[in-house]
Design brief:
heterotrimer, A mainly alpha (276), B alpha/beta (328), C mainly alpha (272), A: mainly alpha, 4 strands, C: 272 residues, mainly alpha, 13 helices
């Protein structure tokens, strides 16, 4: 028991150290953050007018009213800042340049290192992107951005954070097999953009497709936490209680972690065998 | 022959911003930035005669690259004047660069995915070289470099040395009178370096003036007729290579790994420069007083060593020597 | 001497055309060396840009829509936008990426030592065939949309083509402004995102936006000219004020060119 505590403490120390270094490293690129503050609101303004016009006189479209729709895009932008992920890019870079070896030699799991990096990077996102944008949205655009169930929302965002990370990490590992994984990653980015609900709420898709989406990772990366934020979840005509969908999201994350472990082991066999 | 390049009181100043680290600092840096002035080149004047090969020597960050960028018209001086073949590089850049060539050792003009010969054709179009001139010139240079075989292979499969040769050809297709070279032999192996130097000599005999920057004394010794040494943005030496040899003396640096602790080294013309540890020492040998051969004989009599390497004098030592000779 | 200079200027045009020809050859050679990558990138670009028409279809499919605009009319705007993007990607969008890259890696000198206009050579060198798939995709949606709206007259077609070309020039202006900004904000990967978000305003009927925004999209950063005005001309919805809108477009392009040139000069003053 005591041993366990020690190991956890050590891990937390590593996480803290790596996160702090990443934070400092990226805070040098302060203009990135300043520009990022604009990216979200500009996208949001377009969405705001498109949907205001689209609703016209109608009160509901696919079970969502205009206020929920506006909140949806506001929350989607904000949660995006918190869960954004580059693990795939970093990992394939390490593999392609052969620098992955330096991690294989260190007494730390690279995935844990990458995760710690992401924590640092996203804390930066929280400070320089999320908070300023939140202020812009609430004060300037007067969008009400208070989640209905704050606890569940935080939990769901955390799960989305993990989902994004593990999925992108798996994606990065494809570089062990393909020298040029740019294409695969771009295709994935495109699919995840469409099917995670960043461009349009998933309830707008044909019913059959919505059913399939339950079994794909995409909705759990953005659509689920955003809907939990709005306090009302529905997909494929199924209305769900918030705790239920967050539970399903948790299950999806667990499955993804397992898949990531399997792929990681296969990658290591390949890495040690081929020396890729 | 007359001066082809006249540089007077060339100065380049710029300012950078200080960046803090840490959360508080980066938050502060969003609003306030601290300016730090830097003088990269400080009132440097020199002349270059037509047909010369001039070496600009200096340690990293001395202002060599800044100087050559200003000479090629790609960077504007803060003050001072440059005249090359009657042109002011700062004014009318396009007309000026038509007359010169430039090779930057760490930057490539060649297009990565296609064979060099296609990149050459691109420059043929850019410089408006006639078919006849292009064919003649290409034939002449490929023969000189012996690169006929691989200019039709994609650039990405070429070795660094082969690529460098192609960079030279690309930069000189339009028959420039003056060619600027920034660290042209950086990262190359001995044979490739030798080839490049031969090429420069040959082209120089045909009338091309070369200005090269380097931090490699060997480049200068084997190529240059005249040498300018820059340190911390200021010119500290400007004379012939013979004069430089006189100032520096013919010294070699020898690094030794000993098998036993050595008290003193008693060989004429030899002095210990540095003792990194009891078993690792660096020695300077004055070849005017003792030949390398004699030195080796005496050395093996006095101690036993497991490893030895003979090196050129490092830039820092050269600078120290020059300051000392000026003080005398 | 004066004669020589005149001759030099006369040859200049020929020389620039020659350079462009060489660049297209190189682009073709590159594309055929990495055939698989080329096809993949073509497809991804096509799929990526087809999302917007798709979303429009989904919105109209849910029973909603933009008042006064049929789904085909909106698709017409968006397909014109796609075609304009495709042309931009092929001919001048590269100037943005290559400038960002060169400023970050300090390679700008390699272009400045060439006796040719910097902006021109960077655009020419980054000529890419990858936009061709996108263009075909845009054209397909365009044809479907045009079949389902009333037949435009010859005059409308002429107007359309003129506006479309001016819209492409606006795209060029945007690319140049972005490239110019990247001199200042070195290595900032999010600048293109901002501009692509700004361009999004041009993908929809302008009537859905409030007056203040329309002033911006038609006068300050005239993205409305990229697709909305050309589509309006084809649909016979144009009015005389549209002709005046050409002026801010040219001014915007000139501003982009000026800003880019200015930043190059500034870069030479400061250095990498």
């Amino acid at each position: 028991m005591k041993n366990n505590m020690g190991a956890i403490k050590k891990k937390l120390n590593i996480l803290w150290a790596v996160a702090v270094v990443t934070y400092k490293e990226w805070s040098a690129y302060r203009t990135h953050s300043m520009v990022s503050i604009l990216v979200g609101p500009i996208y949001f303004i377009v969405q705001y007018f498109i949907w205001t016009a689209a609703y016209g006189g109608k009160t509901q479209l696919n079970g969502m009213d205009l206020t929920q729709m506006i909140t949806y895009f506001g929350a989607s932008t904000l949660i995006g800042y918190l869960t954004m992920d580059f693990a795939d890019w970093n990992l394939q870079m390490l593999i392609r340049t052969g620098r992955f070896l330096t991690f294989a030699l260190r007494p730390i799991h690279h995935r844990f290192f990458a995760f710690s990096q992401k924590v640092g990077h996203r804390v930066l996102g929280l400070v320089f992107e999320f908070i300023p944008c939140y202020i812009i949205f609430t004060l300037l655009f007067k969008v009400s951005l208070v989640p209905t169930h704050i606890g569940w929302t935080i939990l769901s965002v955390m799960l989305a954070f993990l989902m994004n990370f593990y999925i992108h990490y798996i994606l990065g590992m494809t570089a062990f097999w393909f020298t040029q994984s740019t294409g695969i990653r771009r295709v994935f980015d495109l699919l995840s953009g469409v099917f995670s609900g960043v461009f349009i709420p998933l309830v707008f898709f044909p019913q059959a497709l919505q059913k399939i989406l339950f079994f794909l990772p995409f909705p759990y990366m953005s659509y689920v936490p955003v809907m939990v934020f709005t306090g009302d979840f529905a997909l494929a005509g199924i209305q769900m209680d918030i705790p239920v969908i967050v539970g399903i999201q948790g299950l999806a994350v667990c499955i993804t972690i397992l898949i990531s472990e399997v792929v990681y082991r296969a990658s290591m066999r390949r890495f040690n065998g081929v020396g890729a | 022959m007359g001066n082809i390049i006249t540089v007077e009181k060339l100065t380049k100043k710029y300012s950078t911003y200080k960046r803090g680290s840490g959360f508080k600092e980066s938050l502060k840096a969003l609003f306030i930035r601290k300016k730090v002035p830097v003088i990269a080149v400080n009132e440097v004047s020199f002349n270059v005669k037509e047909g010369d090969i001039i070496g600009i020597l200096g340690p990293n960050g001395a202002g060599k690259s800044t100087t050559i960028k200003m000479l090629t018209g790609t960077l504007y001086p803060t003050s001072g004047s440059i005249e090359v073949m009657g042109y002011n590089p700062t004014k009318n850049r396009k007309a000026y660069v038509h007359q010169i060539g430039a090779v930057f050792g760490q930057k490539s003009q060649l297009i990565w995915d296609i064979p060099p010969v296609d990149s050459f054709r691109m420059n043929k179009a850019i410089y408006g070289i006639s078919d006849k001139d292009y064919d003649e010139r290409l034939k002449q240079m490929t023969k000189l470099f012996m690169v006929e075989d691989f200019i039709t292979r994609p650039t990405r499969v070429l070795s660094l040395g082969e690529r460098m040769k192609c960079e030279f050809i690309m930069a000189m297709l339009h028959h420039p009178k003056v060619v600027f070279l920034d660290e042209p032999t950086i990262g190359l192996d001995v044979i490739a370096k030798h080839n490049i130097r031969d090429f420069i000599h040959e082209m120089n005999k045909l009338g091309t003036t070369f200005i090269l920057t380097t931090h490699d004394l060997e480049d200068v010794e084997q190529l240059a007729k005249n040498v300018i040494i820059i340190n911390k943005g200021a010119k500290v030496f400007d004379d012939s290579i013979q004069k430089l040899r006189k100032v520096l003396g013919a010294k070699k640096i020898v690094e030794l790994t000993l098998q036993e602790d050595l008290g003193t080294l008693d060989i004429p013309g030899t002095s210990i420069l540095e003792r990194e540890s009891a078993f690792n020492i660096t020695v300077s040998v004055d070849l005017d007083q003792i030949s390398i051969n004699e030195f080796m004989t005496k050395l093996s009599q006095q101690c036993s060593f497991s490893d030895i390497s003979i090196k050129e004098m490092p830039m820092e030592t050269i600078i120290t020597h020059i300051y000392q000779s000026r003080d005398k | 001497m004066k004669d020589k200079r005149l001759k030099y200027k006369g040859l200049r045009m020929r020389r620039y055309l020659n350079v462009y020809k060489e660049c297209i050859k190189v682009a073709f050679a590159s594309a055929s060396t990495y055939r698989l990558n080329f096809i993949l990138n073509c497809t991804i670009m096509l799929l990526g840009d087809i999302i917007f028409p798709l979303i429009t279809v989904l919105i109209y499919g849910s029973g909603a829509g933009f008042e006064g605009w049929s789904v085909y009319e909106v698709l017409l705007i968006q397909s014109i936008f796609t075609m304009s993007t495709a042309i931009a990607d092929m001919t001048f969008h590269g100037v943005m990426w290559v400038t960002m890259d060169m400023v970050r890696n300090g390679n700008m000198e390699m272009v400045l030592i060439l006796p040719i206009d910097t902006m021109f050579i960077l655009m020419a060198r980054t000529f890419s065939f990858e936009g061709i798939g996108l263009f075909i995709g845009g054209l397909t949606v365009f044809v479907v949309a045009i079949i389902n709206v009333s037949v435009p007259s010859i005059l409308m077609w002429i107007q359309f083509i003129a506006y479309f070309i001016i819209g492409v020039l606006v795209m060029m202006g945007i690319a140049l402004v972005m490239a110019a900004i990247s001199f200042k904000w070195v290595g900032n990967s999010r600048i293109p995102e901002i501009f692509s978000n700004i361009r999004n305003f041009g993908k929809y009927p302008q009537s859905i936006f409030p007056k203040a925004i329309v002033v911006i999209t038609s006068i300050i950063i005239p993205v409305a000219m990229i697709a909305f005005y050309p589509a309006a001309a084809l649909l016979g919805r144009g009015n005389s004020s549209m002709f005046i809108m050409i002026i801010p477009c040219f001014l915007f392009l000139l501003f982009g060119i000026y800003l880019y040139r200015h930043m190059v000069r500034l870069y030479q003053g400061v250095g990498g």
